[in-house]
Amino acid sequence: MRNTMPKTLTVLAGSAMLAAGAAHADRSDWPDNFTVGTASQGGTYFVYGSGWANFIADELGVSGGGEVTGGPTQNLALVHSGDVAFGLTTMGPASDAVKGESPLAPGVAMDNVCAMFPMYETPFSITALADSGIESISDIPDGARIGFGPAASTSDTYFPAMLETLGVDFERRNGGWSDLGGQLQDGLLDVIAFAAGIPIPAVSQLEVQTDVNIIEFTEEELETILENYPVAEFSIPASTYETLEEDARAVSMWNFAIAGCDLPEDFIYEVTKVTMENNDRMKSVHRSAATTIPENIKHNTVLPFHPGAARWYEDNGHEIDPDLIK
To answer: Which DSSP category does 305 fall into?
Structure first.
């Protein structure tokens, strides 16, 4: 088995009491520590991934934490190479990675990446300042400066193409969500095109500081995008943001937590168990985790499930296609 992480950190002393099952698990081949690849600060991945890492570390008594990365596409590469144990990704980049079509490693089929559990759907949404006069996609002026998030992120991979398909002419900008939010507020950007779990921290922060428009797709625009991209119809609930007065039409991709396929089966079993059996705790990390439940494993048809995760699902009455288990 490949050594997927350094042994410089030791098991935490005096951590929270172990979950009953984990306390009796064979830990002889467990890692001493782990890292979760997330995304940029100000985005949902960073909040969700860092919070989940701390939760798992506390419950299992293994030192761990989140790491800022370029997002889903880079996380797939980092997990495949063993540079991080865990990562967060979306199904679009995952499909590209297993086919050897990742922009970060063209021609390399990433076969050391396994699914663990479903996270949430990532809506694609657009935000502009209210005083910009941009209230719809058709209002975006030619040459608009649009922030698409970190380079090679899900947002940066798919949103520019979607907007081009809808006839939008723009200048492409990249950066972390917090930084792009600041640029929008300072007038350095005209629009931010987000692909992130809701509520997006950067948008929530903008709402506190200024008036914004959260722009939805028209029915015609929605139909065009659904016909051309690997996304599903989604509705952003009005309760998500103070700005919204009614639900907003959008599209989305599912997110899954991933692990190196060569990590110990018992370790991944316990990680999956703790996550799946404590949804209230997960929702306290980020409310998008309301959909971090075993019933949503059906939304992964791309990545093989880690055998440790698959065993927990099967032990608890959730069927997985045998062909989809590593």
So the answer is: B
Residue 151 pLDDT: 85
pLDDT the model gives residue 319: 95
Cis amide leading into 72 (omega within 30): no
Q: Within the chain, which residue ranges are assigned CATH 3.40.190.10?
A: 20-121+254-324, 122-252
Q: How far apart are the C-alpha atoms of 53 and 55, rounded to whole Å?
A: 5
Chain Cα centroid distance, residue 207:
22
Contact 200, 194 (CB under 8 A): yes
In the prediction, which pLDDT does 232 show?
86
CA-closest candidate to residue 177, choices 157, 205, 158: 205
Alpha-carbon Rg for the chain, nearest whole angstrom, is 20
Q: What's the burial of 14, exposed, middle or buried (CB within 10 Å: 0-12/13-18/19+)?
A: exposed
Question: The dihedral of CA 139, 144, 145, 151: what is its sign?
Answer: positive
C-alpha–C-alpha distance, residues 66 and 133, integer Å: 38
Residue type, 279: N
User: Does 3.40.190.10 match the CATH number of domain 20-121+254-324?
Assistant: yes
Distances (CA, A) of 117 to 239, 291, 306, 311: 26, 10, 10, 12
- Per-residue pLDDT, 210: 96
Closest CA to 5 of 89, 78, 98, 57: 78
Residue 217 pLDDT: 97
Nearest to 257 by CA among 11, 41, 16, 36: 36
Strand 191-195 to strand 144-147: parallel, antiparallel, or no bridges (unpaired)?
parallel
- Assigned CATH for 122-252: 3.40.190.10
Give the pLDDT of residue 7. Answer: 35
Spans of the chain, pLDDT less than 70: 1-25
Residues in the chain: 326
Q: Is 17 exposed, middle or buried (0-12, 13-18, 19+ CB in 10 A)?
A: exposed
